[in-house]
Write the structure tokens for this entry.
Amino acid sequence: MSSGTTTITCPVCEQTLSLDETPRRSLNCESGHRFDAAKQGYFNFLTGKGTNFLEDTSAMVQARDAFQSKGHYEPLVLALSKLINDHHEASTLDVLDAGAGTGYYLEKILEHSPAPSHDALALDISRYAMRKAAKVPATLAVVWDVWRKLPTADQSRDVVLNCFAPHNPAEFRRVLRPNGLCLVVTGEPDHLNEVIEPLGMLSVAEGKQAALAEKFGAEGLRHVESQKLSYQMDLQSEDLFNLAFMGPAGHHLSPETLEQQALALGPQQVTASFGVHAFVPQA
């Protein structure tokens, strides 16, 4: 397992990076650019001016990890794994997770894959999320802005995973192999509708499927399938807090106020509703 280094490219000069384990774990290219791993195992490619986007904070990542570890989104993992396993039959599975967060979906997909060899690259702007993703087996976790050119070679990935994250279809198309698969997960308009208003969360816009198909089609990715996955979750007050705080609203919600609101709501049955959209490269 090469942990993403067979086809990872330098963000400065775009040459191939090689992994050196001594004297300190680092990624190096022939032009002399070097990136040392943080003590938590991830790499940071956002040098210089970095990015204008807000990274998820340590508290937000902790909330997401706590919520996901309870298995509330397990049906989504199973749906993604089935789509990948039905599409991909090779002995190796090379995955790019663009906007990987904690690496939860990536780790579960690798666990469910029958391929004997895996090679994954997890990208996210949050250092705190990449600390978690760096623990996923066979995965290289890199702090990077997925709006930019992705640090992996042309046609180097069997699967691009894009769950609740910014879309960069031109780059997804570039890095996918001709028989590759791009899976995009979005929230449906009824996602979490029971608690969005009382917890101050952000609602989901209508018409995402049509907009996605048009946007991705313009960049050479053909829409082949969309599935709506909807089910009920039984959530306690702690789950409600984590659910609200782990998402984009966590950047402006007061943890103290949110905790009081979640306690006041008490146990709730909440709708999980996802759109799972599959794209393949156009010939």
